[in-house]
Amino acid sequence: MTAEAVTATPARHRRLRFVFITTLLAAALAITCVVSLASGQYALSPTEVAGILLQGVGIDTAWAPDTPSASGVILNIRLPRLVLGVLVGAALAVSGVLMQAIFGNPLADAGVVGVSSGAALGAAASLTFGLATFGMWTTPAMAFIGGLVAVFSVYFISRSGGRTEVVTLLLTGIAINAIGGAGMAFLTFLGTTSTREQIVFWQLGSLNGALWPNIAIVAPLTAVGIVVALFAARSLDLFALGERTARHLGLNVELLRVVVIVTVAVLVCAAVAFAGIIGFVGLVVPHLMRMLIGPAHLPLIVASAVGGALLIALADLVARTAVPLADMPIGMITSLVGGPFFLWLLVRTRRRSGGWA
C-alpha cells in the first residue's frame, strides 16, 4: 500500500463519519420538529401538521383539519417558536465553535465567559431607556454592542503570552457575568413593570412569544454569521497549529481574530435579542461534535449548527410539554444538561494539563 493510500484512508473514514453523523442529526431534527409541532395542549397528528403546513404554502390537501384554530396554533404560535429555536441553537453552537477556536480552549462559551450577559445587558438597556434609533433593529444592535464589548474584554484579558489560560478565562467570565448581572439588576430597578418582565425573560431564556417579525431579524444575522464561519474554517485550521506557524503559512492572524470575534458577537446577539440567555449550547454541542467527527473546522461548524438546532428543539419540546399548562424557561433546561457536562469537562481538562496550581 502506498503512502498516499495510507493517508487517504483515515481522511475517507472521517468524511464518512461526518456524513453519517450529520445525516443522523438532521433526521433527528426533522422528527423532533414534527413531534414539537404536533405536541401541546392542542394535540394534532403528524398528518394534520403536514396538511396545515402544505396549506400554509398554498397546497390544499385533505389532511388539514377543518377548524381554523388548528391552523392558527401551528402557523402563528408553534411554528415561529420552533423556527426561532432552530436559528438560536445553530447560532449559539457555531459561536461556541468559533470561540473555542480563537481562544484555543474547549471551555470557551458565550454563556460561560459572559458574552451572552453582555448582549442581554445591551438589549435590556434599549428597552429600559426606550431607545428606537434603528427601529426594529435597535434591540439587536444594542445586543451586538454589548456582546462585542464583552467578547473583546474577555479575549484581551484572558490572553497571555500568545495563549489563553484556563483559569484566567474562567475568572474573566465570572467577572463579566457579575458585571452583566449587576447591570441587569440596575435596569430592573429603573424599569417599568413591563420592562422588568422582559428583563426576567432574558435572564431565564425562553422562546415564548416568538413572532415572525423577530425571525425576519434573527434569520439573516444567523445566516451571515454561519456563512462567515464556514469561509473562515480553513484559516481556523491553520490557527490551531499555533499563531507563529499560522503566520509563517501566510495567515493574517490579527484580521482573523477581529473577524471571528465580530462574528461571535453577531451570532450571540441574534440569539439573545429575542430568546434571552440560553446557556451551555455553545459548550456542549461543539465539544460532542469534535469527539465524534474530529477537529477539522468546516465539518465541525456544519455538524454543530445542526446539533445546536436539535438541542434547542428538544429542550423547547420539553419546556412546553413536561409540566401540564406551564411553559418552563428553556435556559433552565439547557443548564440542567450543560452544568454537569461543564463540570466533567473542567475536571477532564485539569487532569490532562496536570493541574492548574
Distance between the termini: 48 Å
Structure summary, number of beta strands: 2
Structural class: mainly alpha
Using the coordinates shown, work out and report the CATH topology.
Answer: ABC transporter involved in vitamin B12 uptake, BtuC
CATH class: Mainly Alpha
Task: State the CATH architecture.
Answer: Orthogonal Bundle
Poorly predicted runs of 5 or more residues: 3-7
Helix content: over 70%
Give the number of domains.
1
* Biggest β-sheet strands, sense, barrel: 2 strands, antiparallel
- Figure out the total of helices: 14
Strand order of the largest sheet: 1-2
Shape: globular
Instruction: Write down the overall mean pLDDT.
Output: 85
Indicate the proportion of strand residues. Answer: under 5%
Task: Sketch the topology as an H/E string, one letter per element.
Answer: HHHHHEEHHHHHHHHH
The name of the CATH superfamily reads: ABC transporter involved in vitamin B12 uptake, BtuC
User: What is the radius of gyration?
Assistant: 21 Å
GO molecular function, one term: transmembrane transporter activity
Transmembrane segments: 18-38, 82-103, 110-131, 137-157, 169-191, 211-234, 255-285, 297-318, 330-347
Protein name: ABC transporter permease
Main location: membrane
